[in-house]
Amino acid sequence: MLQQTQVKTVLPRFAAWFEVFPDITSLATASLDEVLKAWEGLGYYRRARFIHASAQLILAEHHGRFPQTFEAMLKLPGIGRSTAGAIASFCFDMNTPVLDGNVKRVLRRWHGSPEATDKTLWVQAQEAIDASGQPDIWNQAMMELGATLCLASKPSCIDCPVQQHCGSAFGTFERATSKTVLVRNVHWQVKLYLDAKKGVWLTQRPDEGIWAGLWTPPIKELVSAPDETPYHIHQLTHRRLHLYTDVIHTEPGGKGQWATDIRHFALPTGIHRLLAKHGITPAAGEA
Ligand code: SF4
Known about the structure:
By secondary structure, this protein is an alpha+beta fold. It is built from 10 helices and 7 strands. Strands 1, 2, 3, 4, 5, 6 and 7 form a 7-stranded mixed beta sheet that branches. Helix 6 packs across helix 9 and helix 7 crosses helix 9. The longest helix is centred in the first third of the chain and has 17 residues. The structure holds iron/sulfur cluster.
């Protein structure tokens, strides 16, 4: 949950998640719909799919017990070398380094080698954790150092506990470069089929692409921006969705189902906001 999402957002959701899925078996045997519903609003829904698929793999191949070898952890969907390193060190006391963006920065500065490649950094990270004697604390300390003191733009060397050993302490630092993210404008016509008794018509998005597997009113992508102001604009990492609504009071065609209470469906935040503008909220159903 913490990949790409802030701690304060995650904390209440983390507790709520374990209310719904108290163990691996309950998660593995839930439907993907239930999992996406529990993840609703956290964004980056791929993570929910990975957790679900991991739970199923753990149930099928490890008798429902989280694998305890590094190699087996790496086979779980969504878990790469650095995440597996964190789990293995925190939970099983293994000498497996974490190498996220913050730790890379700390290592480069510590060794005074700003150009060090990932390959070199993995070697340095392994040597350091091998020498630490406390891999769990070592990994947490490196991540905390990068997140709190050894910041990208303004490292606080004066407060840093490792300043005497650091090859870059009080030096001049590269300016933090923010990666340019190319954002594409997308224009979507959202067809709001409304019925006073039956509610709003929802369809399930395909398994791939934006909002995969979530429920939305039928959406049609427009080739260009129409001559009207979008009803709602929703920002994703690489897309800016301009949503235009078309309210329809006839019977819809195709696959889907009426929803009198949208609480029972996993909807993306952008659609929740758009529906709210039409008076359709989880608490009230259709107004
Ligand atoms: S002394 Fe400065 S550059 Fe070195 S690790 Fe500490 S904060 Fe980073």
